[in-house]
Design a protein that fits this description.
alpha/beta; Urease, subunit C, domain 1; TIM Barrel; nine-stranded parallel sheet; seven-stranded mixed sheet; 16 strands; about 40% helix; globular; binds guanine; binds zinc ion; Guanine_deaminase
Amino acid sequence: MTGKTILRGQVLSFVRTPFDGAPEDAARIDEAVLIDGSHIAAVGPLAELRAAVPGAVEIDHGAHVILAGFVDAHVHYPQTAMIASWGKRLIDWLNTYTFPEERKFADPAYAAEIASRYLDLTAAHGTTTMCSFCTIHPESVEAFFTQAQARGQRVVAGKTCMDRNAPEFLRDTAQSAYDQSRALLEKWHGVGRISYAITPRFSPTSTPEQLEAMGALWAEHPDCLMQTHLSEQTDEIAWVKGLFPEARDYLDTYEQHGLLGGRGLYGHAIHLEERERDRLREHGAGLIHCPTSNTFIGSGLFDMAGLMAEGQRIGLATDTGGGSSFSMLRTMAAAYEIGQLRGVPLHAAQLIWLATQGSARALRMDHLIGNIAAGMEADLVVLDLASTPAIAQRSAMAEDLWEALFPTIMMGDDRAIAEVWIGGRRV
Ligand code: GUN
Ligand code: ZN
């Protein structure tokens, strides 16, 4: 559906971050939002929007909550089919399950099938933008961007580069990683709603030469994002220190090769040293919290409260398929539980902000997506706060909207997603 549409419901938008000041006052609720083509034209009282656009189509969502679509700041779409693989920690999990699956993406037909399946699954869960790793195969990037483009979806992705400590069939070289990444970037970056992210997988699977080549490419294209992994498991950190004996810490393996910056996205970032925290904050780099992955693979407890308090830029992500879900609701629930284990419960407003604006801010796209305001792209999700009997009976008792939302955050799944809009189109 395109044209002018008024959606009625409880339209929730943030007026400031809920991490500064009382979280419950960080958002406002409006009666309606007006979609004009691919963008949001206005938010406000129903009578005002009706008067502004007589004859607009109206969809009444009653008590449902209308939010910005979820933004998943770190995923591996090629790991869709192998999600929920049992019993391994990071390095064994990569070798046992991940690399054999990623091998299949040399086949463009398989890559297209999984890209399509992944985008269907995530849309059903209310995710409208994601930042994805692909595989070393350029075909895997082509497949993902082609599928996203057909759906008019804002996505970020890049070819995952690895030239050591991976099976022969998943290795490129410093030069071929540079050449293939550059060709994909030049073809796709900025085409419609597509952005390219330079994507060295992580320091253990790149030689210093490959990291240097990725850093050079980023310096040539500073408007691109760069995504990688940082300090996920303690064994991994010890391995990095062995591979890069001259580095001051894990982050330094990126920093020394031009891979630290404000458009850098560092997945996990759990076991950080003080120098790493200082450097990440000075650059305004994006730290991406992947809570279901961090519990599923047994990585550790992200320090949300401490990192937020020191002013880090933080996004939220499923990390599918190290993460055990496609759902940002489930991901918010896991972030809440990790907060509890660290003694700091996150408020519902903070969880929803992280899954929308927080992630959009980490991706440097918060002027386009991640909130509901005039001029922003019309990526929206409509949440049913009574999607199952268990959730309905709890939210019925709630005294305010945050309390009514919280059971859907903790217990909701794709049944709570009443409707999704991507780029002004109902999907
Ligand atoms: N570190 C390097 N590669 C990966 C990956 O695919 N998933 C996770 N969770 N961590 C990684
Ligand atoms: Zn990852």
